[in-house]
Amino acid sequence: MSGYAARTAPSAGVHDPLTVRALVVERTALVTVDVVGLHEDTCAQVRAVCRPWADHVLVHATHTHSGPVSMPGRLGAGLVESWLPAVVEACRDAVAEASSRQQEVTVLTGYGPDPGVASNRRRPGGPEDPALPVLQLVRADGSALATLVSYACHPVVLGPDNHQLSADYPGGVRRLLEQHGGGTVLFATGCAGDQNTGHAVDGGRPYDPTDRTFARCAQVAGLIAAAAQKAELRSGTGDVAAASTAVELDLDLPTATELRHGRARWQGRVTAVRWGPAVLLTLPGEPFCQAGLELRAHIQGAAAVFVLGYTDGCPGYLPTAAEYPFGGYEVCDAHRYYGMPGPFAPGSLERLVEEVRRLSAAVEAADDALTGPPREQ
Q1: Average pLDDT of the chain?
Q2: Using an 8 Å Cβ cutoff, are 168 and 219 in contact?
Q3: In this structure, what are the phi and psi dihedrals at residue 224, rounded to the nearest 5 degrees?
Q4: Nearest alpha-carbon partner for 183 in 216, 134, 221
């Protein structure tokens, strides 16, 4: 299992299903996978096999910490290499099936009230993102074909003492909304690098196993699902459009390491998608919530803005430059568990946000050129 360095034993069973889900809108697709992360190479494979049905595919990991090791060399040992092709095939099959079942719908979107679940896990008074964007595809008879919900909160209600496979609270949110007529429900995790349900990650507060149970997981899911059901959804104008670009980020390495190996860089991918009145913006890795706050404030022409992390690759945490002086696990230590030579250099998240803002401006304009196949970089 992946998600906690302290947990070394294998899974002891399955508490709730881990799933792959796909939502296809014209020639764009969002695929969500219940794993802690997917390597950017695996995401590229998914995009390649999905090209018969979609030109722009967003490959998102929900980031549950109660799933299997899912990335070569990252977040724990024990990856079953032969299993990864099955994940790619499942993504392909989900997109193919969703595409084959396309039908005319109205896109409704908006925000639910703050469910009051997430808080800044690094320091009191730190940034928090209460937004709960909701999107629903509604048939002519008023029934829901599909629902998308996003929230910026680590799926770590279940702690390292849990040895049962689980989608954590996103699985409960989906299940509850599907029971209430939401159609097929997808959950996508927002910019949750510094957000969780209230516990510390660096030993600053004692570990409380009574707060990391399946009962607590169900309670959190219930709060988020109830808030999503209260969202005031509305339709709006706008075409379907998408744009993606590659972004190179520097790693912050000691000078001696740079002299031996050269300055290390990592190449990621950001995407902006417009589905009528809704805009989806995606970043790789574990962005801090300030990215979501800034990007949502920047977009003016959408009824709801989804800012997703953990998409098209998960190489580590992406703090804001202002957070580096505070240190802590995400800034100083997490790259070791991620198998990276060093943390990302200050300014990396700001670089991603800048590129996403540029793409979002193009998507809002709905330039016809954006609806064609993307150029791989």
Answers
A1: 93
A2: no
A3: -70, -45
A4: 134
> Is the whole model's pTM more than 0.70, yes or no?
yes
Domain presence at residue 133: yes
DSSP H helix total and E strand total for the chain? 8, 17
Structure tokens at 137: 């595809």
Which of 224, 115, 110, 109 is closest to 177 using CA atoms?
Answer: 224
Is residue 86 included in any domain, yes or no?
Answer: yes
More confident residue, 20 or 373: 20
Chain position carrying tokens 């296809």: 24
Q: How far, in Å, CA of 95 to CA of 100, rounded? A: 9
Record the tokens describing residue 374, joined without a space: 């993307």
Among candidate residues 108, 111, 135, 115, the one with its CA nearest the CA of residue 227? 115
Q: End-to-end distance of the chain based on CA atoms, in angstroms?
A: 32
Question: Residue 321 gets which letter from DSSP?
Answer: G
Average pLDDT of the segment spanning 58-81: 96
Q: Using alpha carbons, list the distances in angstroms from residue 213 to 100, 154, 159, 216, 218.
A: 39, 15, 8, 5, 9
User: Total structural domains in the chain?
Assistant: 1
Other beta carbons within 10 angstroms of residue 367's beta carbon come to 12
**CB neighbour class for 223 (10 Å; exposed up to 12, middle 13-18, buried from 19):** middle
Percent of the chain scoring above 70 in pLDDT: 93
**Cα–Cα distance measured from residue 228 to residue 169, given in angstroms and rounded to the nearest whole number:** 14
Q: Is 4 a domain residue?
A: no
Q: Is 377 helix (H, G, I), strand (E, B) or coil?
A: coil
131 part of a folded domain:
yes
Percent of the chain scoring above 90 in pLDDT: 87
- DSSP labels, 305-345: EEEE-SBS---SEE--GGGGGG--IIIIIHHHHTT-SSPBP
Residues contacting 355, CB < 8 A, separation 6+: 245, 247, 270
Range of the domain at 363: 16-371
Q: For residue range 163-198, what is the model confidence (pLDDT) as tens digits?
A: 999 999 999 999 999 999 999 999 999 999 999 998
The torsion defined by the Cα of 151, 157, 160 and 162, in degrees rounded to 10, comes to: -120
CA separation for the pair 297, 170 (Å, rounded) = 25
* Percent of the chain as helix, strand, coil, to the nearest 5: 30, 25, 45
User: Could you report the per-residue pLDDT of 46-58, keeping only the tens digit for each?
Assistant: 999 999 999 999 9
